[in-house]
Design brief:
By secondary structure, the chain is α+β, with helices and mostly antiparallel strands. The chain has two domains: 90 residues, Arc Repressor Mutant, subunit A (Orthogonal Bundle), CATH 1.10.10.10; 117 residues, Beta Polymerase, domain 2. A four-stranded mixed β-sheet has the order 6-5-4-7, sandwiched between helices. Strands 1-2-3 form a three-stranded antiparallel β-sheet.
Length: 213
C-alpha cells in the first residue's frame, strides 16, 4: 500500500519545517531506489533514527515523500512531481550555485588572480551558520598587496558573498612567489588545499602545490 497524503495548501511552506527534513530530502533526492527509514537514517549527515522516522512521517503527510508498505517496514521515495520538489533541488545545488557565482564574479575582475579556490568547510560541505567562507587567493607576482584595484575587487567579493550567503569571507592570500615557498615547506594549509579545495579559477590546487602548474 502506498501512503501519500496532502499538502496544506493554506500553508504550503510548512512542508519543510526543520533542518532534519532537509537532510532527509537530500538523501532521497540522490536516488530513485526506495529506502527504509533505517537506511535513510544511516545516510543523513546528522540526526537520530527516531528523528529521521518522524521527519519521514511529516514529509509523507505533506505528500512530498511516498511511503510504501513492505512487510513491517516502509519504503520511501521522493515525490518528484510535488510542487515543493523544485525547492529541494534548489537546496541541493546551493553550493554549486555559490561556486558558479564566484567563478562569474572573478572572471569579470580587471586584475586576474593566478589561482582561486574554496577550502575548509565551504569545500567539504560540513559548515554551519557560524562558518566563514574560506577562499585561497593567489595574487599575480606583478600586483602589489595594496594595489587599489586589487583590494577593491577582493572587498567587493567579500560583500557579495555576505549578501549571497550571510557568511563572512575569510581570505588566505599569497602571491605567486609565496606559492613556491609553500610548495617546499608543505604547511598544514597546503595539505588541506590539496585534499579538499574546490578550484574556482586557475590550475587545480593539487597541481599548484605538486609543481604541475
Amino acid at each position: 500500500m502506498l501512503l501519500c497524503y496532502e499538502m496544506n495548501v493554506s500553508r504550503p511552506y510548512a512542508v519543510i519545517s526543520s533542518p532534519l527534513d532537509v537532510e532527509v530530502l537530500l538523501v532521497l533526492r540522490r536516488t530513485t531506489r526506495p529506502l527504509t527509514g533505517r537506511e535513510v537514517a544511516r545516510l543523513v549527515r546528522k540526526g537520530s533514527e527516531a528523528g529521521v522516522r518522524k521527519a519521514l512521517a511529516r514529509l509523507t503527510a505533506h505528500g512530498l515523500v511516498h511511503a510504501e508498505e513492505a512487510g513491517r517496514a516502509f519504503l520511501h521515495t521522493l515525490n518528484r512531481e510535488h510542487l515543493a520538489a523544485p525547492a529541494v533541488e534548489v537546496l541541493a545545488t546551493m553550493r554549486h550555485e555559490l561556486e558558479g557565482r564566484l567563478a562569474d564574479e572573478i572572471e569579470g575582475w580587471s586584475v586576474q588572480p593566478a589561482h582561486v579556490s574554496l577550502f575548509g568547510s565551504a569545500a567539504r560541505g560540513d559548515g554551519d551558520t557560524a562558518s566563514d567562507i574560506d577562499l585561497f587567493l593567489v595574487r599575480p607576482d606583478d600586483v602589489e598587496e595594496h594595489d587599489a584595484v586589487w583590494r577593491e575587487q577582493v572587498a567587493r567579493l567579500a560583500d557579495h558573498i555576505y549578501r549571497w550567503t550571510g557568511n563572512r569571507l575569510a581570505v588566505a592570500e599569497v602571491d605567486a612567489r609565496e606559492v613556491r615557498r609553500l610548495r617546499q615547506d608543505r604547511p598544514a594549509i597546503v595539505e588541506a588545499l590539496s585534499a579538499d579545495a574546490v578550484t574556482v579559477a586557475g590550475p587545480d590546487a593539487a597541481d599548484l602545490f605538486s609543481g604541475g602548474a
